[in-house]
Amino acid sequence: MNNKLKIADKEFTSRLFVGTGKFSSSAQMQEAVLASGSELVTMALKRIDIHNEEDDILTHLKHPHIHLLPNTSGVRTAKEAVFGATLAREALGTNWVKLEIHPDPRYLLPDPIETLKAAAELVKLGFVVMPYIHADPVLCKRLEDVGTQCVMPLGAPIGSNKGLRTLEFLEIIIEQSNVPVIIDAGIGSPSHAAYALEIGADAVLVNTAIAVSQNPVAMAKAFKMAVEAGRMGYEAKLAPIKNQAEASSPLTSFLY
Amino acid sequence: MHTFKALFDTHNWDSTLKSIFNKTTAEVKQALVKEKLNLEDFKALISPAAKPFLEQMAQKSNRLTKKKFGNTIQMYAPMYLSNECQNICTYCGFSMTNKIPRRTLTDPEILKEVAFLKEKGYDHILLVTGEANQKVGVAYLKNAIELIRSQFSNITIEVQPLNQEEYELLIENGLYAVLVYQETYHRHEYKKHHPKGKKSNFDYRLETPDRLGKAGIHKIGLGALFGLEDWRADSFFTALHLRYLQKTYWKTKYSISFPRLRPHSGGLEPKVEMTDTDLVQLICAFRLFDEDIELSMSTRESEVFRNHIVHLGTTSISAESKTSPGGYTLENESLEQFEISDERSTEEVVEMLKNQGLEVVWKDWSQFEPIQ
Q1: Which one of A18, A25, A52 would you mutate to disrupt binding with B, by most B Cβ within 10 Å of its Cβ?
Q2: Does residue A113 sit at the B interface (CB-CB below 8 Å)?
Q3: pLDDT confidence tier of residue A244, bands split at 50, 70 and 90
Q4: Is the complex ipTM higher than 0.90?
Q5: Is residue A11 part of a domain?
Q6: Which of A95, B136, B188, B333 has the most CB within a 10 Å radius?
Q7: What predicted TM-score, i.e. pTM, was given to this entire model?
Q8: How many beta-carbon pairs under 8 angstroms link A with B?
Q9: Does some domain include residue A93?
Q10: 8 A C-beta contact, residue B313 and residue B299
């Protein structure tokens, strides 16, 4: 079995986190979330009515093993993010927040400056901050310094399904990080997820690839299995990759 | 002030139209397989040469829309606040010279209309007026927004063009988006259709999105009114406008609408007809040109057309719309701007969407900035 993942004071058996957007109905979303085995599920604050206990999305996520992770998608500045997170904490009773500040509405790329500013402030206000950021190793260290409990670098633009296009930088981030590294965007297929776990990412967050597939429930299950396999492979220590076969006529044998 | 006008003035209508009609099958094929399309590719996709590829365009449009927006459709409702107008627009029921009763909603009337729309489930609202700057100026609009903002997550306006400071004031008070259609990018034809009133100033209207961008608006809606001039050239200029704005005001979101001329009192016959096939071609072309843009479809279009278009790139629709001030609860249809075509109730449209496997999204915004 996989080791458990700890973020702040919570332990997770599943290393697959999922999003709730783009499904064809809330019922289908719920079924897929349950099939994924995920224990940390993110939803956009802008999509839910936090003051309505019968909100359609929230109602479908009421399960004892599911921990809600509100995200600030749609905000453009640190000020708006802090305001949104504070509203969510009051209404939903969770101090966890997925910090997303993307002033660019096309590629939804995160603003590093505003994110760092908001993260520092939210940590001071007692939040468990999970920041969505570029695969920028220096920014990850800066976020760690201000007290975020993990970092969430992107593999490729959100919703692109292109996989780990930022691989070189993800590897540096994983090598250097003292907090869990969760690869957040661009993961388009179970093999991408497995690979992320194999290279040592602590978890992945997946939404579009599940929601937009022909069979979201089956795809959620496929991701669950891929994440478990990837982690198992990582824990079992992958055999080293060899670029060349070992030479059959060694060049230095004359020395012995 | 640097604006779109500088770029626009380097383009000529006739040569643009000619270059669209000269696009070849080979250019269409190339545009179909490319991942990032430029304006020349867009021209190819709206050209007559692309007609045989309509099914391919529709398939790709469907795929791209699903990837970005998922299996969802956003619902919105227009609410007309006033039909007072000091412009003469040849195609519009509100035109100053039309002898129709005029009405501007009072606060209690606005709230009565709001209550009707809330009951139906709407959370994104579009406020519409004519252009009567004394009676329905910024102060009136600010008051209307303040009055309703606690009941809607997302407020858009479609009103007379304002200046930058006026937009800033409304944004501070909870305004999310502004729709401002150029009607036609043909300068000369524009003048013919807008002979009198503030709207007759082509350049002031053309530069409105620039003022909105500088004011920091969240979303700008663009479009042309199809029927006034050749839809292909007008669509090219819309796309040119869009690309310019995206590069200049990169924090702003954009949407495109596709209004075709509809019958109204004192009506104008379309000069250039746009068929259903043309409209599908255009919607798909916009989606292929831009994966991220919101595409909106109103009740101007028929039931059958709308049932199918929700899979071809459209991301938001209205239902049960009234185009007259007080139309939902206070007035009969004598004050309307134009006749709608799809007359189904909100419930029927929602049912249709659900049956097609689409999630109906009512709320997709929150005011994160504390109101000033």
Answers
A1: A25
A2: no
A3: low
A4: no
A5: yes
A6: B136
A7: 0.88
A8: 71
A9: yes
A10: no
